User: What shape does this take?
Amino acid sequence: MRLKAEGLAARRGEDLLFSDISFDLGGGDALILTGHNGSGKSTLLRVVAGLLPAEAGRVTWSGPGESSRASEACHYLGHRNAMKPEMTVSENLSFWKTFLGDTARGRGVSIAEATELVGLGGIAHLPFGYLSAGQQRRMAFAKLLVAYRPVWILDEPMAALDARAEETFTDLIQRHLQAGGLLLAATHQPLGLDNAQELRMKGFSAFPQDALQ
Ligand SMILES: Nc1ncnc2c1ncn2[C@@H]1O[C@H](COP(=O)(O)OP(=O)(O)OP(=O)(O)O)[C@@H](O)[C@H]1O
Assistant: This one.
């Protein structure tokens, strides 16, 4: 399995945020995007996930007997949790499990197992909106577990987490990588992964952000 980006550029509004971004990831590889606020990390993740068009370049996915559309191989966890606050956690996860479905390469775990894996097995009957910010983030992460996708695209996955939840996420990410999955993540915090590659986004901002760091 390979996820390749070649010569990617993206624009938001009038501004070209980055250009000529390339990477080539195989099974078990992790690429961490770092850089100042506004440097284009989220934008790059959304381009790779197929949620924004690229200004130039392309993203390709190749796996045995699979579609070459990279977006179909990806789980995307953005800044927002993509869960309805008035629905219970179980209802939200059930929606995602059905909507995403499984692929020929693998199957997701049950909703009960996914909520146990993120350390919150007892509260899946509650409306998502009742949960604390950290609990909501954990349950959003459970979305990655209920349907299988080989590529995990995570935007600030550790936001709002306590130390124990950070360990849980690191463990789940490591298990995903050890099973041959791929990771592309933007983060300001270390994810605790060995052998992750780093791509530092510099952006084309008119402001000398790098000088401020
Ligand atoms: N819809 C939009 N229209 C115009 N500009 C946008 C839009 N969305 C984002 N931007 C701009 O694009 C730039 C890059 O934003 P992006 O969210 O990719 O940065 P980031 O590196 O992920 O930042 P952070 O570390 O703060 O999450 C920012 O200057 C932002 O204001």
Notes: The chain has one domain: 2-205. The mean pLDDT is 90. The beta strands are 2-12, 15-26, 30-34, 56-62, 74-77, 151-155, 182-186, 197-200.
